[in-house]
Amino acid sequence: MILDATAPHTRVDNFVIDDYLDKIDVRGLGIYLVMKRHYNWLTGQCTPSYKRLAQLCNLSRRTVIRYVKRLKEAGLIDPQMRFTDEGQTSNQYNFYQPKRPRKPAAKPAQMDTTEHMGKTPGDTRVTPPVTAVSPDQVDLNKKEKKENTKTMPEKTEKAEKPVIKGMTEKQQACPHPYAEVVRLFDGTTICNHCYGQLNFLPDTEAA
């Protein structure tokens, strides 16, 4: 069955059932519903008599009066007595919505400041997160680097120059690494840094 939202209906707020049903009882809720059934949403008039409420709820008039008082004590209605030339007539029922304690708003998720650090409004670029390093970690990194430096073998700046047969003392005393010395196809040895080609003729020709 599909409910027709446009059909005539009586509106009752959920809080009346959720928060006040244990105070007004099911009978009080029924009387409250019948009262709302007589409420004029345009003028605010709501004047059902005790007799009318008792007939629709199938309760005695005394029971209706007792539950009307309970509804008033709960703060859901405010019955105002009305009088005519003939005397007192049915009450005017005003409906109230008591203040309910608000639930604390959920705390927003904590924003990662490293993700938005250095950004301006409208900037969509991704900023790499900044990792904070404690002072103890900095000292530990320095100590580890120092120990690694001690254990690493020292690099030899100059490659060991092999002794080649036929090299002169001048050639052997050359301060430059052997990689800088060129040996030509005819046996001539040349160091472009400090010697000329004539000084590097093979021993056989120099003799």
Percentage of residues in strands: 5-15%
CATH class of the domain at 14-95: Mainly Alpha
How many alpha or pi helices? Answer: 7
Instruction: Enter the CATH topology name of the domain at 14-95.
Output: Arc Repressor Mutant, subunit A
Largest sheet: 2 strands, antiparallel
Name the average pLDDT.
75
Q: Any low-confidence stretches, pLDDT <50, length ≥5?
A: 197-201, 203-207
Which secondary-structure class do the elements indicate? alpha+beta
Keywords:
single chain; 207 residues; alpha+beta; Arc Repressor Mutant, subunit A; two-stranded antiparallel ribbon; 4 strands; 36% helix; 11% strand; disordered C terminus
What's the SSE blueprint?
Blueprint: H1 14-37, H2 50-57, H3 61-74, E1 77-84, E2 87-95, H4 113-116, H5 135-151, H6 169-172, E3 181-183, E4 189-191, H7 203-206
Antiparallel strand pairs: 1-2, 3-4
Helix pairs in contact: 1-2, 1-3, 2-3
Describe this structure in words.
The protein has 207 residues and is of the alpha+beta class. Among the domains are: 14-95, Winged helix-like DNA-binding domain superfamily/Winged helix DNA-binding domain (Arc Repressor Mutant, subunit A), CATH 1.10.10.10; 169-206, no CATH class. The chain is built from 7 helices and 4 strands; from the N terminus they run H-H-H-E-E-H-H-H-E-E-H. It has helices at 14-37, 50-57, 61-74, 113-116, 135-151, 169-172, 203-206, and strands at 77-84, 87-95, 181-183, 189-191. The strands form 2 sheets. A two-stranded antiparallel ribbon has the order 1-2. A hairpin with a 2-residue loop joins strand 1 and strand 2. Helix 1 crosses helix 2 (50-57) and helix 2 (50-57) packs across helix 3 (61-74). The longest helix is centred in the first third of the chain and has 24 residues, at 14-37. The protein starts with 13 loop residues before the first helix and ends with a helix. The relative contact order is 0.07. Mean pLDDT is 75; it is low at 197-201 and 203-207.
